[in-house]
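Page 37, top half.
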Amino acid sequence: MTEVGEKGTNLSGGQKQRISLARAVYSQSDIYLLDDPLSALDPVVGSRVFRDVIGNRGMLSNKTRIMVCNQGHYLHNMDKLVLVDGGRIKVYDKLEDLITDPDSPRNFREALEQRQSRDQSKAGTSNEDMAENDTVGRITQEELGRSTKTGWQLLRNLLRLTQWPALTGVLVFVAAACAFAFEQIWIKEWTDSSSRAASSSAVDQLPWVQVLVSLCIIDVALRVVGSVLLSLSAKRLSRSIHNEMLEHVLRSPVSFFDASPRGRILNRFSADMDFVDSRSFLSAKQAVQNTLITLAKVAVIGTQSPVVLGVTAVVIVLAAYGMNLAVKASHCARFFESVATSRLLQHVTETVDALSSVRTYGVAGRFRSHFCRLTDESMRGFSGFGTAYRFTRAVTSTAGFVVVVCTLLASTVFAGPDGLDPSSVGLALSSATSVPLALMTLCVMLFNVLQMIVSFERCVEYTELPPESDLQPTWSEEQKAAVEKILFSWPSEGKVEFQGYSASYRPGVLPNVITSLTFIVNPKEKIGVVGRTGAGKSSLVLALLRMLRASEGRILIDNVDIAGVPLRKLRRSITVIPQDPSLVRGTLRMNLDPTNSHSDREIWQCLEKAHLSKVVSSDPRGLLMETADGGSNLSVGQRQLVCLARALLRGTKVLLLDEATSQMDGDTDQLIQVALRDAFAQCTLFTIAHRIHTVLDYDRILVLEDGKVKEFDSVPHLLSDKSSMFYSMAIEAGINSVRRKPELISTTL
């Protein structure tokens, strides 16, 4: 039961395609619609998959297969050919008809003239079961369903985030509770004084009234001030914790996002932050206020009947013990509910992303059942929390009843022969009868605070996420000035040098994915990076971006060690065009120039070079055309062209392409290759190539095997050496010879 992670994190593009194809085969349908299922596979593996699965002797030989194909060497296996070009459709019964048709793309004929990929037994020895991105062990981590922090740690974080208003507000409410207690005692003393005096005038009563009014005003004023301070602290808490969460999440390494599903992150920023935002002020204010008022009432009762104070202390201890058990149970239930809600949101996001596949394979019922199971699991935690809450209410109600009964008995039955004066009995009973309601209200508020504390703790966890190493190196003022002077125009040439570089996703825990890489790339050189699946090609890109952690050696760009370059500067100086491009919701202009630092004219020039200007100009909104989430309203090839245009616009000295033209048709691929040579003639270019045809005119080829440099030389030299690994890969790809002129380089469709 191998875990692949969210959206196939642990899989390469080729592995994702093969899994999708295998899933389609298992569906046992009569008609199969295959949307370019072999584009991310190298020629050897692609030929094997086509032969064993899609071809006339494969597993789907007795099924109807409609296959969108960008590889011309598969066309001779097709029973019918449908050419779609410029919105027009042409149907051919024979391959010869397509070849002789002058309207057919030129690269069809060139690709068909090449020798077809040979099915060699050694192809099975390619390391195709390894993940291209070498993500060994990088799987989704389980979310903890329990508290990991002590109360003091949470209190320290709370005071750090709210600063002085929270503590000051609590102290103000303590003063308000004292004022409330003095009010009750003052009323009792006033009553006693009036009963002892034979007669009293209004003038005699004036001091008593003035003091009582003053106490009431002080009580109300202190409560208002305390509420304002707690409101400010709640606002500061929400802003501070959200900003810290966002900052730490954005600065987290890629491994964090591989191990954390989107639903989990979404739950922290939505449900948990909602509890902190909406309940922190009201729950904290009422909990503090009710706790202090209850204590004040008990203290007032104790001044009139000390015996009741002792009994109340025992009752409070017993009630606190019962509440402690309930709070622990509710704490676990709340954590369980939060984790279950994260799983539920994760399932919802994954279902929405794969909705077309879910409906296509007719498994909506299974996904619906799983959704119901996850909902039941989430409600199970909520039910446990509710049970603990009801138990606590029963405990507090019983405790309040005992206090009232004890006060009543102490004031009447056990009052002694002289008894208590009426004012003391009235004060004690009036205070005691309000205790049960105060305790129940306190119970409700404490549980609201508990919910907020659980959410607060989960949010605090995200404020302590470790950032990427050396995100901003620490330098002295002299070092900082010297480095800024060097990096102001860095990199100016684009020279890249690896010096015994080894790296791992977790040095000391996981093995190195690239080992002892030593080579030099001169400025403006075009380097093709090839190798079997799992050879470490994508890891090379991650190393240049410092997404891998170096275990030894270093990488120099223009003689500057990138380990000492701030990550923001480093990644702004390198442009990457990924194999699986993704855009954000907004306008095309925002995706091309998010900093709004280029003119429309410059953007249109880049779109023209990327052969995307016709698509954009056909939309009446032009550069303001909308892009959906992930760029779903554009084809994969068009999204890759957008990434290419963005790279052209940035104009960096180092460009990394991860098979950026794999989803394009052959004509567009050839045009883009020419555009790359022209537009990036002054740049150092690394191209990770699964299709060797795209790098035959590059200056040199870097062949990787098991994370090590196997070969590094020019194309003619490598092809002239029949013992070289590149030569064998070229033969497997059906390449007979190399012609150095770019316009004559053979490409596949």
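Page 37, bottom half:
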Amino acid sequence: MSVLWPRQQCNCKITKNLILHQKNLWNAWITISDLRDTVTKKRHRLQLLRQKLKLASILKGQMTLLEDWALLEKDHSTSLLGAIESLKASTLRLPVVGGAIADAQSLKDAIGSAVDVMQAMGSSLCSLLPVVEELNSLVTELAKTAAKERASLEQCTDFISLLVAIQVVPRLPSTLQVRDSSLRAHIIQHNHVPPA
């Protein structure tokens, strides 16, 4: 009986150690699985942010066209106002009392010239109107996308801060650290860009 007692104690210790190691392995597996899920989600979010950045860079090129349109519109408005004033000066400000005489042919030529200028400006404006409407819808969409992007960037900043807080970042592969640094740099740059 005395020989069995130490053997049973040894078996109990081995069983306890085995259970303890199994629990540790299980907890480690759960932690690793959670970290993998987190990293996978971060990669997906990073890919989404990259796609949004590409879209923003494409739409940013369209903004110059819209700014050019503002300059053209100003020139057209100025020309139109000038034509209206010239037409008023040609017709409404004629002295019609006191025996004033006007050359009918020069008056007809002035009015015809003003009408021609206004028709040319009208056709020019009509041809540009669809482009302006399309740019307007693109700018509206860009504003919505920029707002969503800003929210996503803030969320990524929170996630990165969380990762740093639990000290997961030093254990990740170096490519993810580079992505993290790149994302931080983009966030800093994005915060310095004035909103459109």
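Margin note: The chain has one domain: 55-192.
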